[in-house]
Amino acid sequence: MSTTSNEHPIILTARFSGACADCGGHFQVGDPITRPNHFEMWRHASCPRTKFDFDPGDVCPVCFTVRATSGACSC
Ligand SMILES: [Zn+2]
Ligand SMILES: [Zn+2]
Questions:
Q1: Three-class SS of residue 22?
Q2: Eight-state DSSP code of residue 3
Q3: How far is the CA of 49 from the centre of ligand 2 (A)?
Q4: Which of 8, 12, 63, 66 is deepest in the core (most CB within 10 A)?
Q5: DSSP-derived secondary structure for 56-74
Q6: How far apart are CA 43 and CA 25, in angstroms?
Q7: Which ligand minimizes its atom distance to the CA of 48?
Q8: Which ligand has an atom closest to residue 65 CA?
């Protein structure tokens, strides 16, 4: 068994519009989209959610700072 390109992320220009599996937002024809493998749904190549890599539930509703792992924020 040799390593094949099947494990590489696939990035292409969307030829159809659809919903991103990561953020739930829509992508349009011409947007760069990706999926980690052939069994996954398409998603934004640079998803606005995964770009920041945090859970929205970790944002303080008062100061809108993303809490550190200790739970600390700016207020
Ligand atoms: Zn997305
Ligand atoms: Zn806060």
A1: coil
A2: -
A3: 20
A4: 66
A5: GGGB-TTT-PBPPTT----
A6: 9
A7: 1
A8: 2
| Dihedral over Cα of 30, 41, 47, 57: its sign | positive
CA of 55 to the centre of ligand 2 (A): 15
Q: Are 43 and 35 in contact (CB under 8 A)?
A: yes
- Spatial distance between the Cα atoms of 31 and 9, rounded to a whole number of angstroms: 16
- Tokens describing residue 6: 């099947």
DSSP, res 46: T
| Cα gap 72→60, rounded to integer Å | 9
**pLDDT (0 to 100) of residue 27:** 94
Per-residue confidence (pLDDT) for residue 10, from 0 to 100:
82
The CA 47 to ligand 1 mean position distance, Å, reads 4
* pLDDT, tens digit (0-9, with 9 covering 90-100), for 56-74: 667 888 998 888 778 888 8
